[in-house]
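Consider a concrete sample entry:
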Amino acid sequence: MTDVILMSIDGEVATLTLNRPEKLNALSYELIDTLLAQLDSIEVNARIRGVILTGAGDKAFSAGADIAQFSRSVAEGPDAALRDFVARGQRLTARIESFKKPIVVAVNGLAFGGGCEVTEAAPLAIASERAVFAKPEIKLGMPPTFGGTQRLPRLAGRKRAMEYLLTGETFSAARALELGLVNKVVAHERLLAEARDLLARISTYSPLAVASVMTAVTRGINLPIAEGLLVEAEQFARVAPTADLREGLDAWIKKQSAHYSGSWFSSGKGVRT
């Protein structure tokens, strides 16, 4: 059998590829479970600083849930559908959203349904100019179930999200950028390179600091500001005693001292008497 998730590691970056191109990388139960297991292994691997998540082939990142498989769960009744489909999909998007290392979704084609919801959940996303998005669940007679009714309105605003949730209409990569669903739209052939570049810029900083920023934003974004500030303070308290912060402060002070000691002002020429 073909692996439903391909993983490659290049330096500090792991690339996970949804590998069901003949099914437009539909999110089968096996694929979701395998992806969750891969994320578990990456999280405890100190050598990996970031993750790129993309799809195999030229047509799709992911066209969403495996409908044939999902329909069998529905036929077994609501309890089975909630357990096997809804809970599994929500577990995946919650894991991606709260992951301690930056994940960049590289949207290389269709991102429909669950594929769109994975993109919504990720902290960062870059889209190929060929990418197309949609929330087509309404056409099946159901709401999105992997978090799409909650995350898209938070990203795009209630009314703009509602339009796509209620019509199921497709929208372009450029529109996804306007809605805040992706960070950037790039030429198709530059997609993975741009994702790697973004992670390279982030990985120059302390992993603890990166994780603390991501945690503070993810946990605080839906809280009242006062509670969000407590989350922010909590994250600072976690990094305050670490060597990472001490080294960062020492390097900053040294750099600023060197800069000003060699400046025009330090010579006295720029000081009024």
Remarks:
- The chain has two domains: 5-202, 207-266.
- Residues 87 and 146 are 8 Å apart (CA to CA).
